[in-house]
Write a structure and sequence with these properties.
By secondary structure, the protein is mostly helical. The chain contains 16 helices and five strands. The radius of gyration is 20 Å and the shape is globular.
């Protein structure tokens, strides 16, 4: 596939405004969606288990959003407690009262450090934070490339700091915009956000082999003791996650301990994965649009990029 055609295909992902459920549904309808979603979730699990910081923030959505929020604020004026509180206000499900604790948690992970002599106190991401997030988002883009192979154009250039920095910033901005623009929080995300360990527990259930369905259909073998050991979450907390999910109407517990996703949960989880994949493709598309010189070094001039995008109906 030529660079010109890759740019043209990616240009269709230069989506302005809120990512709609209809566009996510288009992703779920793609013939390779199950493979892409399984790759996305399984590699997120592997990546998080290999990195203490990622393992910590992947345990629930609140800490994940806090990490993403820090990157967003860093890219748009700096990380301070007042700005963090304001961001929490915009994310309707997060109280501004949690802002200080979330900042302390990121400091505990050595993911942000205070900048001396700044008032209000400003923080900067550490090299370990940036490196961990780069690994996380590289894996996410690899999954997205299964849906749109043209994303390889960006993947092949993630060794260039300029490309990686812009791509990471765009993903963070897109994730943050989605976090406060979604009119109603899906039940599955409420579980992710409110219960420590819920994200990893639900993702492990999603990866259970079940006749090629994603997420699985029918009973899923489940051991609270095994999950507790694997994710370093207490057994009572594991039970609370399942009880909360059952109250939300997302799954049922069987007499033998197995669990079963309800169809509403399967739909929400598919849309969740589709949204993550779509946001990576959107960030990749805007990375090409905003850094045309970085994608023109193999004899493709910036003017050709603009012309190709115009042919695809996208203004650059």
């Amino acid at each position: 596939m030529s660079i010109e055609s890759d740019i043209g295909r990616l240009a269709s992902w230069c989506i302005e405004g809120q990512l709609t459920e209809e566009r996510c549904a288009e992703v779920t309808a793609h013939p390779s969606f199950e493979r892409a979603a399984h790759f996305f979730v399984s590699n997120m699990m592997v990546t998080s288990q290999a990195d203490p910081g990622l393992r910590g923030v992947f345990q629930d959505a609140a800490h994940y959003i806090a990490a993403m929020m820090a990157l967003y604020l860093h890219a748009t004026g700096g990380i301070t407690l007042p700005r963090f509180k304001q961001a929490c206000t915009q994310v309707r499900t997060m109280s501004p009262g949690r802002a200080r604790a979330l900042l302390y948690y990121l400091r505990y992970l050595n993911w942000i450090v205070p900048v001396p002599g700044t008032r209000p106190q400003r923080y900067e991401p550490t090299a370990s934070f940036i490196a961990a997030w780069h690994r996380h988002l590289r894996v996410a883009l690899q999954a997205s490339a299964i849906i749109e192979p043209a994303a390889t154009l960006v993947l092949e250039r993630l060794d260039r700091p300029e490309v990686t920095e812009r791509y990471v910033q765009l993903v963070a901005m897109g994730d943050f915009a989605t976090a406060f623009s979604t009119p109603q929080t899906p039940a599955i995300l409420r579980i992710f956000q409110q219960r420590r360990g819920a994200t990893q527990i639900v993702m492990s259930l999603m990866l259970t082999a079940n006749d090629g369905n994603f997420p699985p259909v029918g009973a899923i073998p489940f051991s609270a003791a095994e999950v507790s050991r694997r994710f370093q979450v207490s057994r009572p907390q594991v039970r609370r996650v399942l009880m909360e999910a059952a109250r939300e109407g997302l799954l049922s517990r069987k007499a033998d301990g197995a669990v079963e996703f309800h169809e509403s949960a399967r739909r929400e989880l598919r849309l969740f994965c589709a949204g993550q994949i779509a946001r990576c493709l959107i960030a990749a598309a805007f990375t090409v649009r905003q850094l045309p010189h970085a994608f023109a070094q193999e004899a493709l001039a910036p003017a050709a990029i603009a012309a190709e995008a115009d042919r695809s109906g996208v203004t650059v």
